[in-house]
Amino acid sequence: MFFLSFPLFSQTESFTVTASVEEEEVSAVFEMIKIPGRNYFVGKTEVTCEVYEIVMGENPSSYAEGNFPVNTVNWYDCIVFCNRLSLLLGKTPVYSVGDSSNPDDWDYSPHGGSSISADVVQDLNADGFRLLTVEEWEFAAKGGQAYKYSGSGNIDQVAWFKGNSEYKSHEAGTKTANGYGLYDMSGNVWEWCWDRLKKDSNYYRIHKGGSSASARELCEIGFSGHHYGSRYQPCYSYYTFGFRIGRTDR
């Protein structure tokens, strides 16, 4: 199911994913927000456990379920999820490995700590779901505002971080949204992005936003790049690692 609505801050689209679990139909809804002046949509929240489990058939998270952000996913898991979600909802997949955009052909088992052996290629002209680039992520996180954190200069208003979270993630969307209506772009779980740390290397991929176990400075919008806390090997997962999806407006 797909429909459009028009809230004050931007255009919104809503999707429903459905699957049969033990002969019973289960479904979950997620929303995407069009970033003003740009040609892409961004997930209103981080990908939740319930949406992830419907698409992937399992929830790899540590101590999280339902409307909590999925965690313990590596970069490759996110790529597989995006293409499976695109195929499920009739969108053109963004990613390909070899000559195939079907993750079943990639010789990769999610959540096992392994890697996809060949290069992952992205097609930004496709209308399917994908990871954000760092530039897209930072623009969306600012929300048209000039705050240090996404939505406020007061981190407690907008983020679950180590100063208020008891070192555990919380349900998506329970803090204040930023100016574009996006939640938790500071704190809760780190969000994998598409970008490599270095253009000529696949060794590290960047993630953004900090987590429930992060110091406040790691939750700043501008924090990334060469600091140890913002890049990891793409096969690495941890209980503070999640992701948010985007989609090119086509």
TrEMBL record:
A Pfam family (short name) is FGE-sulfatase
Q: Any idea which GO molecular function terms this record carries? A: formylglycine-generating oxidase activity
For this protein, the record's InterPro entries field holds: CTDL_fold, Sulfatase_Mod_Factor_Kinase, SUMF_dom, SUMF_sf
Please list the residue ranges annotated as the Sulfatase-modifying factor enzyme-like domain: 53-245
Q: What is this protein called?
A: Formylglycine-generating enzyme required for sulfatase activity
Organism listed in the record = Treponema ruminis
